[in-house]
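Lab manual, section 2.4: Encoding a predicted structure.

Procedure: take the sequence of the chain (393 residues), apply the prediction step described in section 2.3, and record the output as structure tokens. A sample record is shown.
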Amino acid sequence: MSVSEHTRPTPETLLAKLQESKAARLRVYIGAAPGVGKTYQMLEDAHALKHQGVDIVIGFIEPHGRAETIALISDLERVPLRRIEYRGIVLEEMDVDAVIARRPSIAIVDELAHTNAPGAKHHKRYEDALELLDSGISVITAVNIQHLESLNDAVARTTGVRVRETLPDFVLKHADEVVNVDVSVDTLRTRLRQGKIYGVEKIEQSLNNFFRKGNLSALRELALRHVAEDQAGKSHTYREREGLAHPVIPEKVMVCMASRGSAKKLLRTGSRIAGKLASDWYAVYVETPREEPGRIKPKDFAALEENIRFAESLGAQVVKLQARQVADALIDYARRKGITHVIFGQSARSRWDILLHGSVINRFLAEVRDATVQVVPLEDEQRVAGDETDWLR
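Recorded output:
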């Protein structure tokens, strides 16, 4: 087959591109925390679209009393909100049916993770946005990184605050564009002190709690990583569709650690390699049914917790996968994340043992051809304490 034949779009690809050009589009502005300027940036872009002749309206906006935001709202058409009485209080929510009846090209829908008042058409605002998209109306919206459902536990551990309103990850995956609105930690804290985010009565409490420097730095990193991964995924899909070669990407290192025994040798190796390659790296373990909470042995659970703490201290992103078959989970994760360098631990096993139980390493080598695999022999004392590669069978 010639190169031109290999890269020529298929009929299915052409159809997908045609449908893509006609479909309503979703643009999400994402940020590390309140006050970074997501809504402001969204409204500035809305004005630019209006000046270009695009029919754009506000479905819902929450200015939070910020003068700059209120000034940007005044020149844009607003679809009247739906008033809902609940327990003697009148609440206002976006009127989805009214926006659809107005049929603009684009609707602005702020606070995507918001929970609607009882009696609203949908329980969550992201469901309102999805209905607009299904009706052929493009949506631009905003959300903070801490509202992503998959990050809920990580954000709670980092900030000490459990975010109650969350957004399923599939909504952002559905987005055609994800725009990161970013400012430095010091700039954000200065905005808070100046009363540009919350009222004066909340400033000191916020500075000493959610808006601590460590919290904001961690949230900022989460936002930057998410947008980078989103862009990498969209770029991969685009290049596959267009028949283009994939660009050289940074190395991604995965250390496969077990739910038992010490994994420190493996993690040190992973940290050293990741440092040399200036790359992201992941400490991954698979929770099989026998290692679920309540079933895992206390000794193994303690070792796992120690491995996780050590991995995090070295800068790894710890990932827990759940599966009956360890090999299936590791292979799938490596493919999804584009892992380029994998580190396994290997204890001494007889040929009969390998024939009887199989080998995760052998399966991985057979099915993942575009990753470098490094096998680190385990020391005898580690195997005495608990064979950390027992599940690699």
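Check your result against the sample. The domain at 252-392 is CATH 3.40.50.620 (Rossmann fold).
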